[in-house]
Amino acid sequence: MIYFMFATGIENSYPTIQNGQHRVDELEKCGHYAHWKKDFELVQDLGVRYLRYGPPLHKVWLGRDRYDWSFVDQTYADLRARDIVPITDLCHFGVPDWLGNFQNPEFPELFAEYARAFARRYPWVQLYTPVNEMYVCALFSGKYGWWNEQLTTDRGFVTALKHLVKANVLAMHAILEVRPDAIFVQSESSEYFHAENPVAIAQAEFMNEVRFLSLDLNYGHRVSSEMYEYLLDNGMTRDEYHFFLNHHLKQHCIMGNDYYVTNEHLVSQDGSTRASGEIYGYSVITRQYFSRYRLPVMHTETNFSQGPGGEEAVTWLRKEWANVLRIRNDGVPVVGFTWYSLTDQVDWDTALREDNGRVNPLGLYDLNRNIRPVGSAYRQLIAEWKEVLPTQSVVLSLPISPPSEQGPSEQGQSGVVQAAAAMQRVGDALNTVQASPPVTLAERDGA
């Protein structure tokens, strides 16, 4: 049984820019292809057992039923040997050139075939994020005009969104055919829009409904009448909407919430937005998402730039951890925390829409693989808290096994009976969370 997952991630975004002519490959820019063994050593040195990680889709998926597994075979064999649990990210902001972009209606079904092929090849993998940050991907690709199809319309956004979420749902179904006890950690950006003045209230309220759309569809949550009209006005059909209501797999999911200092926004009276900085913070916004979906929560991404003082990222780490403890102690079942990513990133200061080669000092380690102050602080945090949380916090435990504890009976179709029993235990635990209101400190202490 797993009580809390301390994690990091290896940044593996690969969208295209410049009208599809140039691919931004963060695994290449951050040196992972050359230093993957060292990177896994660094994960172990931190005391981290869970790694948000995924293969480069554009290099592995060569066509329908055509795959190059060579790099994945090497890296996943090494992860398994080290007993690191991958939370496997199968699609991170891009698709192979042969698929075009997220406007392609064939993407969902084809992606499910890829997910099934991956699960069959690596049957020991239990945790998945089939499609990363569906809302952000659709927004940046279909509405902001930054990535992939580079459209700037509501129809472009809705089309990308429905294809991304359907791909995620179909991939979950495909993986469960192979690994019936698979658990899905849906990493999604948690957002909030603040009205700058009374004139902007209506637009802010609209945006605060749009932010939920990816998870509403993914979890089969009925949208408001305004959102239903918005979806239908921009290309979603009634049948497509009802697909999401009828095919969701909410009972197999952990809700991953990503939160950065840029996730809150000010809405001006003309409808434009700009970053507001942290106003509510992770705990307030995550409670909004938990109240809506009633699922276990994992803080799946955060980071902060190491500034001139050297301690800015450390201060942010402490603040985010305090937020995690706050909502856990208030009864929200938070089952994990992630500093993203292991190493510094490149060109995220322009959201990858410019290829400047500018290093962003956001990692636990720099690109020379030297530890940053926040890396040392995270290692210490894990060492101090890993034994305390299971016994002193209200939390849901999940039947997740590390690779070393998985025998042949739990791999592939030969383990259907054992896996189904494990998944029933997960379902019972998740249903308990969905059916129960949050526990307050007073209630927990018997006041």
Amount of beta strand:
15-25%
**CATH topology descriptor:** TIM Barrel
Estimate the mean pLDDT confidence.
92
The N- and C-terminal alpha carbons lie at a distance of 30 Å
List unreliable stretches of 5+ residues. Answer: 409-417, 433-447
Structure write-up:
The chain has 447 residues and is of the alpha/beta class. It has a single domain (5-444), classed as Alpha-Beta Barrel (TIM Barrel), CATH 3.20.20. It is 43% helix and 16% strand. It has helices at 26-29, 32-46, 57-60, 70-82, 107-121, 134-143, 154-178, 201-210, 213-218, 225-233, 238-247, 282-293, 312-329, 373-385, 389-392, 416-435, 441-444, and strands at 5-9, 16-17, 22-23, 50-53, 61-63, 66-67, 85-91, 127-131, 183-189, 192-195, 253-258, 264-267, 273-275, 297-301, 334-340, 345-346, 359-360. The strands form five sheets. It has an eight-stranded parallel beta barrel with strand order 1-4-7-8-9-11-14-15, surrounded by five helices.
List the topology elements:
Layout: E1 5-9, E2 16-17, E3 22-23, H1 26-29, H2 32-46, E4 50-53, H3 57-60, E5 61-63, E6 66-67, H4 70-82, E7 85-91, H5 107-121, E8 127-131, H6 134-143, H7 154-178, E9 183-189, E10 192-195, H8 201-210, H9 213-218, H10 225-233, H11 238-247, E11 253-258, E12 264-267, E13 273-275, H12 282-293, E14 297-301, H13 312-329, E15 334-340, E16 345-346, E17 359-360, H14 373-385, H15 389-392, H16 416-435, H17 441-444
Parallel strand pairs: 1-4, 1-15, 4-7, 7-8, 8-9, 9-11, 10-12, 11-14, 14-15
Antiparallel strand pairs: 2-3, 5-6, 12-13, 16-17
